[in-house]
TrEMBL record, chain A:
<dbReference type="InterPro" id="IPR045056">
    <property type="entry name" value="Nop56/Nop58"/>
</dbReference>
<dbReference type="Pfam" id="PF01798">
    <property type="entry name" value="Nop"/>
</dbReference>
<dbReference type="InterPro" id="IPR002687">
    <property type="entry name" value="Nop_dom"/>
</dbReference>
<dbReference type="InterPro" id="IPR042239">
    <property type="entry name" value="Nop_C"/>
</dbReference>
<protein>
    <submittedName>
        <fullName>rRNA biogenesis protein Nop56/Nop58</fullName>
    </submittedName>
</protein>
<feature type="domain" description="Nop">
    <location>
        <begin position="159"/>
        <end position="273"/>
    </location>
</feature>
<dbReference type="InterPro" id="IPR036070">
    <property type="entry name" value="Nop_dom_sf"/>
</dbReference>
<dbReference type="GO" id="GO:0031428">
    <property type="term" value="C:box C/D methylation guide snoRNP complex"/>
</dbReference>
<dbReference type="GO" id="GO:0030515">
    <property type="term" value="F:snoRNA binding"/>
</dbReference>
From TrEMBL, chain B:
<dbReference type="Pfam" id="PF01269">
    <property type="entry name" value="Fibrillarin"/>
</dbReference>
<dbReference type="GO" id="GO:0003723">
    <property type="term" value="F:RNA binding"/>
</dbReference>
<comment type="similarity">
    <text>Belongs to the methyltransferase superfamily. Fibrillarin family.</text>
</comment>
<feature type="binding site">
    <location>
        <begin position="134"/>
        <end position="137"/>
    </location>
    <ligand>
        <name>S-adenosyl-L-methionine</name>
    </ligand>
</feature>
<comment type="function">
    <text>Involved in pre-rRNA and tRNA processing. Utilizes the methyl donor S-adenosyl-L-methionine to catalyze the site-specific 2'-hydroxyl methylation of ribose moieties in rRNA and tRNA. Site specificity is provided by a guide RNA that base pairs with the substrate. Methylation occurs at a characteristic distance from the sequence involved in base pairing with the guide RNA.</text>
</comment>
<keyword id="KW-0808">Transferase</keyword>
<dbReference type="GO" id="GO:0000494">
    <property type="term" value="P:box C/D sno(s)RNA 3'-end processing"/>
</dbReference>
<keyword id="KW-0489">Methyltransferase</keyword>
<feature type="region of interest" description="Disordered">
    <location>
        <begin position="1"/>
        <end position="36"/>
    </location>
</feature>
Amino acid sequence: MTADAWFADLDPADPETAANRIREGSADSPADWSALAVETGFATDEDDYYDRLREATLEGGQAAVEEREGAVDQQLVHAVRAMDDCRRQANELAERVAEWGGSRFEEAGTGVEYARELSERNPETLGDRRAVSLARRVVALDEEADALGEFIEATTPEVAPNLAALAGPVLAARLLSLAGGLESLAKKPSGTVQVLGAEDALFAHLRGDAPSPKHGIIYTHDAVRGTRPEDRGSAARALAGKLAIAARIDHYSGDRRPELEAELDDRIATIQARADDAEADDDE
Amino acid sequence: MSELPVGVERRDIGGETGLATQGPPAYGEPTDEEGWRRWNPRRSKLGAMLASGMDTGLAGGETVLYLGAAAGTTVSHVADFSGPTYAVEFAPRPVRDLLDVAEERDRLFPLLKDARNPETYAHVVEPVDAIVQDVATRGQAEVALANREFLRDDGRLLMAVKARSEDVTADPEAVFDDVVGTLSEGYEILERERLEPYHTDHLGVVARPR
């Protein structure tokens, strides 16, 4: 029984191995570990045992968190969420800038574009200075969002090459963000991938108030948007299927499978050809 | 109303009377000069169970296994009035905060583990007097059954069941009956009570191993 203990044959002066044992070890059933530790001489008494356990669990927890959080897919998740936050805040502040700027300066405009114009002005009065300064923050936020976008475009193909090739880096990163990481995306059925990002609509459907959503965030993909509305459900289903496969390859094997893209293109072409057939029928 | 465990008191902090424990502040909760800190039942299901007078069987000083510790809000209070406390949480992000809470306490052991796989921490966790469970996953009753091996024969399971984790569309009361039914395979149910108004669609359960 003692052989299963995290402290079995452990040198009490070796905190690193102790932390690893906490993380990697296992046992079929629990036992009175504190008593066993004192019996086997790992600890001098109960208090000493708990002090050692405390050190090992804190150390092990720290290392495990760093490893799981530091994983590159988690960095992408943070980046894509940060990009969306920056974009949203920039737009929101830009509205305030437009309102304020319109009351102080002749030329008026809207959005981040207007904030950019204002930011290049030379403010003369105290009030001008504040409005122009705010405009500069908007521009800075917008530029940060662009920079985050570039980071995502550069990093996603390294983390999930097949998914990035199929979906494009940004959509791929969004899917990772919605799923919570590459591993959990790889474990999702394609029907779930299809409606990721359409949770409100999905739950409305499950409550019985609405039809089932045809697509979530994958709506932004050309294969879906470029298909006529009647066939978008089919296109979304086909795309989601390939994306789910791509995520699994990326997570479990990591090698590149260019044939996935060919298969998807082929399938989408077949679905989009239905529109031509329908037109031909109408002509007859 | 049943008695509170030793180390949990109703105290007046900042002009409001409510549950409190004595220990280092953990998440910006109100405190008084004697080191007591407010235990808000709206932020803690175990707090809600105590505040609504459920008989948890806790006397204070127990060894505790806490499943679903999250960022450590509730478990910080549990560690304040309990003995050795093992805190299991699966998601790395909240464990970052949990580690901070544990740093401040002598007998709180954080474990980044999945409560659905007890064999991954059975080499660390000893038999305990109480299991507190607050996991937001489907199969909450199965988690409690899988962890029953940690509970001493006279121990208590204190469980918060979240209806929406099992099925968002079903009627909560039906979900609760289901979960409690499965739970009865390994536990004798001593008390069940809805946690409204503190938590919507949650059920508090007190049980002991059979």
